[in-house]
Amino acid sequence: RDTYIEKQFGRLNDMQRQAVFTTDGPLLILAGAGSGKTTVLVNRIANLIRFGSAHGSKQTPRPATEDDIKALRNAIMTGTAAPSWLDGMLRQNAVRSWNVMAITFTNKAAGELKERLRRMLGGEEGDEVFASTFHSACVRILRRWAEEIGYPRSFTIYDTDDSQRVMKAVYKDLNVDDKFLPIKAAINQMSRWKDQLVSPEQALASPAKDTKGALTARIYAAYEKRLKEAGAFDFDDLIYQTVQLLAEHKDVRDFYQNKYRYLLVDEYQDTSVAQFRLVSLLTGPEKNICVVGDDDQSIYRFRGATIENILNFERIYPGTKTIRLEQNYRSTSNILNAANCVIQHNTERKGKTLWTSNGEGDKVQVYTAENEQDEASHIADVIGQHLKEGGHLADHAILYRMNAQSAPIESYFTRAGIPHKIVGGQRFNDRKEVKDIHSYMSIVANPRDDVRLRRIINEPARKIGATTVEVIADLAAQEGVSMLDIIGHADQYAKLSRAVMPLLKFWQIYQRLQDSLETRTLDEFAADVIELTGYKAMLEADAAKGHEDAADRLQNLGQLVNNVKNYCDQHGEEATLEGYLEDIALISDIDSYNESADQVVLMTIHSAKGLEFPYVFLIGMEEGVFPSEMSKYSEADLEEERRLAYVGITRAKKELYISNSVSRMLYGRTQRNEPSRFLREIEPEYIEETRSPVLEQRSRFGGWGDSYRDTVPGGASGYSGPSGWGRSASGYGSGGYGSGYSNRSGYLNREYNAGEGRGFGSAYAN
Ligand code: ATP
Ligand code: MG
């Protein structure tokens, strides 16, 4: 095992090695894509656990140096004895695996981390390292301490759909019109508040600029109250409330600071204010905090992530050691140079240039398609060619800016019989029947969960109408109990007399489910839920009536039971209903991505963060798509888009294919978009361009402008006829972006960039 670790360490370059052997105190590793940040993080944990912290304990003669550690490792390898004081000191200082917490962004990244630690340290020790996402870490903390802040330990985790249901109730309570203040806007504002650690009280107290602001604060307070009554946290709450818990309860804080003496955070550039605060509350007085990130890859600003967290780290933790890594091990130099070209156009960055010794590789292939079908077919051709040459489907990833862009590729691939997998989109757990069954399971776990109860109380229909539900809710509020409590005693309330039978019947079902949970295995319980609630019978009846999707839905429920069984197999005796529901709540899009199957993978660039693939297709590289239409009016938004482009480009190891299409159907509208500015930012020497044969042919007859006018009368995006791109009078700043293509091919030609540097808005005109 030690030899294996040695071999891993041996691979590291000098700077990486320095980072790995810097064991104590605050450490910031700031480095570009593919430079081995995650690799360093894993090796650093292995080093801590295997060889210990470099700082001697009080009895040791002096802190160990890197040379000391080398001497020890040499001794281990050659089987000779190390100087006993050194050996004793280091062994004594070896960090226990359960003292280490590593936080990353996705469950997939956390899983990968665990897997690599297992490989380096062996099963037992590797498993003992607590590697998780921010959200899972918080769930774990709250499961233990939620009662301290007035929530049950068996709390429910609400998803967006649940939140919206709560909001509807709040809107009704406060008499708010969704047209005046859209629920979505209110939810976004609440989310921002929680990311910024603004409590409902603070939101209410802050002098609101307008009525909407003040109203949103009231909504926020009412929403939080309802969630607390239901014993539920939404996703933002998981972090926000954990921060409150740790900030207000010193004993809890001490507990964790003692437990996790070494903290490591990957993808640190995407942490929000709340996440940052969480990390600092968990960091003990020894300040053994190591964060790893890349300011150029910060792509969650819209979700409250703040780049300041990374820029301020050195200020907040005095004595921080900062290490920069500059060698990229992932990509060819053509790919890397293309990435460098793009990101150089951002002004808000610390600035660094990556290099690689991986060789030039092929040039970045840029393809201009006629439309999205043409784009899909081109990609299929390229992949087909690779397969002929012995390549694998799973080595190919198709990345895009927005989920909606996957649809044309998906339908083309399905018709062409190309195995593929979409990460994201409608998730299994978001299907109605699956959510319904999970809701039943939730209320068995947490009887206070009125939101989930409302979801299924009349699903399948059992004659419990909306009016009855409101009466129950009122009674529950009056008596300060849950709605289920009222239902259990429905016969005692005159107001419920008309619905007593169905309510008591529902109560009976509920009790049988509770029995089932106690007496049967978890997957049997899941099957019981589907059966005893009448859900199965309802779908079977639908199927018999010829409802087409009923059979699918039955199948999905079968799959649900399988999933529960898998969960049980994975967790053995520790499997619990809460645990299962928690897993579901925390599964994110990216986690449904299973590498082992040989299929092309499709996902958004956001989901691809931290991953790498031999062949990457970056599609839809067009103005209005990427950068998105919305982002074009703010320099900050534009820079975020550019970072996203940088993330996309740097996922590729061997070859990068970028495509844009002159016409694209998006959201039911045909758009004509110019090639993305990010494309033009790449120096031509790193690129090889091709165009769809159809376009080539067309340009031979009278040029771009004319052919557009002929084929698309009154093009949807304000295409303004035959004026060439470089000569257009309208340009970006003045509205009407798709303002005409040049009839010369070769849009990457520098001459079209004449306006570059004159500032956004006028850069593309004239
Ligand atoms: P990202 O910014 O995308 O998260 P990263 O900085 O975390 O990237 P890693 O994923 O750790 O980079 O490493 C990128 C690739 O380089 C991996 O395939 C990794 O195995 C390899 N690598 C890292 N360091 C070395 C090294 N010293 N020698 C050889 N390969 C290395
Ligand atoms: Mg990484």
From TrEMBL:
Source organism of this protein record: Faecalibacterium langellae
Keyword match Ubl conjugation: no
Name by which UniProt lists this protein: DNA 3'-5' helicase
PANTHER family linked to this entry: ATP-DEPENDENT DNA HELICASE SRS2, UVRD / RECB / PCRA DNA HELICASE FAMILY MEMBER
Segments forming domain UvrD-like helicase C-terminal: 333-610
One GO molecular-function entry: 3'-5' DNA helicase activity
Superkingdom of origin: Bacteria
UvrD-like helicase ATP-binding domain mapped to chain residues: 10-332
CDD domains the record matches: DEXQc_UvrD (cd17932), SF1_C_UvrD (cd18807)
Matching InterPro entries: DExx_box_DNA_helicase_dom_sf (IPR013986), DNA_helicase_UvrD-like_C (IPR014017), DNA_helicase_UvrD/REP (IPR000212), P-loop_NTPase (IPR027417), UvrD-like_ATP-bd (IPR014016)
GO biological process: recombinational repair; response to radiation
Gene Ontology CC terms: cytosol; DNA helicase complex
Keyword Isomerase in record: yes
Family designation: Belongs to the helicase family. UvrD subfamily.
Keywords, sorted A to Z: ATP-binding, DNA-binding, Helicase, Hydrolase, Isomerase, Nucleotide-binding
